[in-house]
Structure formats: structure tokens, C-alpha cells
């Protein structure tokens, strides 16, 4: 396997997640969920800026010009990057105060897909929702525990999804027009020694890059054969998510966490909670924007 070099961005997050490449701004965004921090890093200048929100901040997506879509607790909001105005647009599971959003993506038709979990990680408490132009969340899957990574194939025929504790990447047939999904097969089964699959993204060859929580890195999986193709080794155990970005969409931004590590482990792995940039030999896709 290839040896990858990384550049670290010392953000020291408790639970960094939600990496996102904003092509117009040529910058990476990510969040520190429990602390409500939104980070923006410019690879060109090397500058990193932080904005704080008084909520658990789980997801960064993109809407209209200068607008981000943020997942805050169990609500979605528009955030204007110039005026700093926050506008609530949708909410789910108000009856469950212990629930929050987790991972989210925008599909090729411009709809948001976003999952929930219980902050007590109660088994089968979470769901996956689709939010279209009408801002009405429609439940797609339920009985989930940690709704996580998502990706669509370039031909828009397949949707890949991770419910972390299952240690499986599932493939669903996907109907672009309606957004309807139907379970087809288990594409990848993760062996116990590789930790738990967390966030993921897809490259232009159709391979899945998956962050492995407890697995010290990001693994490239072939979803047609279920085989492990490559691994980016990192000096931290809890790797949470990844996305392609950079000028040529060939740089992987990888988020990590300090949570669930003892004081001794934090001394042993001091870069836990930092974010890493790794140049790859493949390219990803530009992120879709939410249409509303």
C-alpha cells in the first residue's frame, strides 16, 4: 500500500466532523459538534477562522450564494456568511430532546439527506430524512443507531449509507427524480480490527473513502467487491469523516476526535482532534448545493 504524507491543522476539536469543500471560497469547512464551533480553513493562505454557535453543530452544507446550511441540534438553518444572519428552516424529532442530527449530504438533485441519533446512542433510536425544496423532512430509514456516511454513484443509480455500529456499508438503489431508495445489498463488511465506519466520500473511480473510528485512518474500499484497496494511516485512533477538496479535488480533508480517549491516550495521541489534509492519486466530486 502507498504511504501518504499529511499536513495537520491543529484545531484540537473534541469531536470534529462534517468536512466540506466550498469551491467558490476555495476553503474547507468542518465542525466541532459538542462545542458548536464552525471552522473555515484556506489551504492557500493557511488561515483558519472559527465561529461559535450555542448549539451542537453537526453539519455544514451549502445553499445559495454566501449561504451555508447548518445542522444545529435537530434543526436546519440558513447562515449568511456576510451578514452573519441565522434563519431556521426545518426541524425534526422535537419530541426527543436527547436527539441531534449527525451526518448530512446533498444529493445530485439538490435535496438534503440528514440522519439523527440519540446522544445516549440508544439502539435503533435514529432515522434518516430527506428534505426537498418544500423544507418538509421525509423519513427514509428508521431503526438506526448512529446514522452516518453517505455517497451517491456518478450515474445516480446507487446510494451508499453507513449505520456505524453495524460495521456495514449498505448499497441502495436510488431513483434520482423521486429520491426513493430501496435496499439492495451489503457492499462492504468492516472487520472488527479496523474499528467502526464513520463518515465517507466517493471518488471519480467509484471507490469509497471511509473514516474509521478506532481504526487510525481512512480506508479506500471497493464497493463492488467489498475489498480494501488502500489506507491512509494517521497518528490518531478516532477518525471521523473525510471529503475531497482543493483546487483539483484531489486533497482529502480528514476530521478526528478526542472523545472516548483517556488522559493517558490523549498524551499518547496528542494530535487527536486535529484535522489532516492528504494529497491522493484520485479525485472526488464537487459537493451538491441545496435547492430551496
Structure report:
It is a single chain. The model has no long low-confidence stretch (mean pLDDT 97). The strands form six sheets. The protein has a four-stranded antiparallel beta sheet with strand order 1-24-23-22, with no helix packed on it. It has a four-stranded antiparallel beta sheet with strand order 2-3-4-5, with no helix packed on it. It has one helix at 263-268; strands at 6-9, 16-22, 27-32, 37-41, 48-52, 57-62, 67-72, 75-80, 86-91, 99-106, 112-118, 126-131, 137-144, 147-152, 158-163, 168-174, 181-189, 196-202, 208-213, 217-222, 227-233, 239-245, 251-256, 275-279. Helices cover 2% and strands 52% of the residues. It contains one helix and 24 strands. It has 292 residues and is mostly beta strands. Strand 3 and strand 4 (37-41) form a beta hairpin. The chain has a single domain, classed as Neuraminidase, CATH 2.120.10.
Could you write a compact summary of the structure shown?
Helix content is 2%, strand content 52%.
Shape: globular
Averaged pLDDT, please? 97
Rounded to an integer in angstroms, the radius of gyration calculated over CA atoms is 17 Å
Oligomer: single chain
Helix content: under 10%
Kindly report the CATH topology.
Neuraminidase
User: Mind telling me the CATH superfamily name?
Assistant: TolB, C-terminal domain
The tally of beta strands, per DSSP, is 24
**Which stretches of 5+ consecutive residues score pLDDT under 50?**
none
Q: In percent terms, what proportion of residues is strand?
A: over 45%
Structural class: mainly beta
Instruction: Report how far the terminal alpha carbons are from each other.
Output: 43 Å
> If classified by CATH, what would the architecture be?
6 Propeller
GO molecular function: calcium ion binding; gluconolactonase activity
Cofactor: Zn(2+)
Pfam family, one: SGL
Keywords: Metal-binding, Zinc
Amino acid at each position: 500500500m502507498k504511504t501518504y504524507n499529511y499536513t495537520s491543522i491543529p484545531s484540537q476539536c473534541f469531536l470534529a466532523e462534517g468536512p466540506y469543500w466550498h469551491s467558490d471560497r476555495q476553503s474547507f469547512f468542518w465542525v466541532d459538534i459538542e462545542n458548536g464551533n464552525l471552522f473555515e480553513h484556506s489551504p492557500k493562505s493557511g488561515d483558519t477562522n472559527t465561529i461559535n454557535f450555542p448549539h451542537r453543530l453537526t453539519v455544514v452544507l451549502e445553499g445559495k450564494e454566501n449561504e451555508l446550511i447548518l445542522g444545529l441540534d435537530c434543526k436546519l438553518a440558513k447562515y449568511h456568511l456576510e451578514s452573519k444572519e441565522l434563519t431556521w428552516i426545518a426541524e425534526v424529532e422535537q419530541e426527543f430532546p436527547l436527539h441531534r442530527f449527525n451526518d448530512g449530504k446533498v444529493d445530485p438533485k439538490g435535496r438534503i439527506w440528514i440522519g439523527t441519533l440519540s446522544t445516549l446512542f440508544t439502539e435503533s433510536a435514529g432515522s434518516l430524512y430527506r428534505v426537498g425544496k418544500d423544507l418538509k423532512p421525509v423519513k427514509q430509514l428508521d431503526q438506526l443507531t448512529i446514522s452516518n456516511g453517505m455517497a451517491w454513484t456518478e450515474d445516480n443509480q446507487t446510494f451508499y449509507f453507513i449505520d456505524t455500529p453495524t460495521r456495514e456499508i449498505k448499497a441502495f438503489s436510488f431513483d434520482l427524480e423521486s429520491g426513493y431508495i430501496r435496499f439492495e445489498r451489503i457492499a462492504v463488511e468492516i472487520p472488527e480490527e479496523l474499528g467502526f465506519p464513520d463518515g465517507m466520500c466517493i471518488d471519480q473511480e467509484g471507490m469509497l473513502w471511509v473514516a474509521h473510528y478506532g481504526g487510525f485512518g481512512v480506508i479506500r474500499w471497493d464497493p463492488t467487491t467489498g475489498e480494501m484497496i488502500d489506507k491512509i494511516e494517521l497518528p490518531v485512533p478516532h477518525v471521523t469523516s473525510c471529503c475531497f477538496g482543493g483546487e483539483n479535488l484531489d486533497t482529502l480533508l480528514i476530521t478526528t476526535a478526542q472523545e472516548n480517549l483517556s488522559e493517558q491516550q490523549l498524551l499518547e495521541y496528542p494530535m487527536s482532534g486535529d484535522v489532516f489534509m492528504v494529497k491522493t492519486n484520485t479525485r472526488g466530486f464537487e459537493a451538491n448545493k441545496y435547492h430551496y
